[in-house]
Amino acid sequence: MRETPGRLLRLLSLLQMHRDWSGTELADRLGVTTRTVRRDVGRLRDLGYPVHAAMGPIGGYRLGAGAELPPLLLDDDEAVAVVVGLHAGGVSGLAEASLRALTKVEQVLPSRLRHRVAALEASLLALPVRGPVVAAEVLTAVSAAIRASETLRFDYVSHDGGESRRAVEPHRLVSWGRRWYLVGWDTGRADWRTFRADRLSLRTPNGPRFSHREPPDGDLTAYLKRTMGRDMWPLRAVLKLHAPAEEVAGRVDGEVTALDSKTCRLELASDSWDIVAFVVGMLDVPFEVESPPELSERLEVLSARYAAAT
Questions:
Q1: Is 170:131 a contact under the CB 8 Å cutoff?
Q2: Exposed/middle/buried for 142, CB within 10 Å: 0-12, 13-18, 19+?
Q3: Residue in 169, 167, 181 with CA at minimum distance from that of residue 225
Q4: What's the CA gap between 203 and 165, in Å, rounded?
Q5: pLDDT per position as a tens digit, 45-79
Q6: Helices (DSSP H) in the chain: which residue ranges?
Q7: At what angle do helices 34-46 and 4-15 cross, to 10 degrees?
Q8: pTM reported for the whole predicted model
Q9: Strand 255-258 to strand 264-270: parallel, antiparallel, or no bridges (unpaired)?
Q10: Distance in angstroms (rounded) separating the CA atoms of residues 48 and 187
Q11: Nearest residue to 249 (alpha-carbon basis) of 292, 289, 285
Q12: What is the mean pLDDT of residues 163-167?
């Protein structure tokens, strides 16, 4: 690869892989000498790319973070992913910036990618985001605290309107169902907690630094599935379904336990008995309410209402 511009782009692509490269490795990949690699690294630095170099047997070249944002080099799939991602919503204050970024990316897309992006954009329908959105400033502030291992101090409003002041060691930001959540160690309650990002109001300055703990349950994904899939909802329903467990499992977001070959137990969590009634009705199988009595009472009201409508 003798042409300098093409070689520099290839070198930049290698350095953006977030690993250390020895001069010999880069020279072999580019088909040039190590002296040429050193010159090309110098050219990239002149263009604003912060290429760091370490001497010694375990040294090498690595692309670091700089004071300014230099041009980025994206492969085909990365470019398409950026365009699609810029169409996503759920974060307030980013609409104008997303549009500017989208315009810049689409202007430089090669023709082979324009067709892919055009097909995607023609297939996408951007509906207004339902429910609350989180401010971009909140996400960036929380992310910075996670990276710096600084305790967050904020006021929080729970789902029932209760207000509290929290001090939390932030662990991760989670995007779940078009909403953002903060998972962290609540120092006041000495336990892991999950907070809706749109319900917290950050207080400044941040609290003391901390050492990151092992994730809850040893697996953050498993913890979130348990706490956000069931434990976060205030209402519990237990029903006996006259259908095999394998016929019900996968059709409903609940815990299904086989009782015998023809019946199973379904446990649901929700914030509304009406939603439970709707979900069970969609299964279209005979069932009995095991608990609680409040669900039975609500089903009687709904049953009378539907009977009157016919």
A1: no
A2: buried
A3: 181
A4: 10
A5: 888 788 888 765 555 888 876 645 566 667 777 77
A6: 4-15, 23-30, 34-46, 76-86, 95-107, 111-123, 136-148, 220-226, 245-248, 273-283, 293-309
A7: 80
A8: 0.54
A9: antiparallel
A10: 43
A11: 285
A12: 96
For the chain, percent helix, then strand, then coil, each to nearest 5? Answer: 45, 25, 35
Please give the Cα distance from 252 to 248 (Å, whole number): 7
Residue linked to tokens 């005979």: 286
- Please report the sign of the dihedral spanned by the C-alpha atoms of residue 172, residue 176, residue 178, residue 184: negative
CB-based burial, 244-253: b 16+ in 10 Å, e otherwise: bbeebeeeee
Q: Please, is 61 exposed, middle or buried when counting C-beta atoms within 10 Å of its C-beta (0-12, 13-18, 19+)? A: buried
Nearest partner of 117 among 132, 128, 106, 129, judged by Cα: 106
Residue with tokens 């990618």: 113
Would you call 135 exposed, middle or buried from its count of C-beta atoms within 10 A (0-12, 13-18, 19+)? middle
* Residue 6, pLDDT score: 78
Count the alpha carbons within 13 Å of 16 in the hemisphere toward its beta carbon: 15
In sequence order, the 6+-apart residues with CB closer than 8 A to the CB of 169 are 149, 151, 152, 184, 185, 187, 210, 212, 213
| Euclidean distance between the first and the last CA atom of the chain, given in angstroms as a whole number | 78
Residue 152 CA to residue 168 CA, distance in Å, equals 5
Q: Give the DSSP per-residue string, 7-44.
A: HHHHHHHHHTTSS-B-HHHHHHHHTS-HHHHHHHHHHH
Whether the Cβ atoms of residue 272 and residue 235 lie closer than 8 Å to each other: yes
Mean pLDDT of 115-126: 72
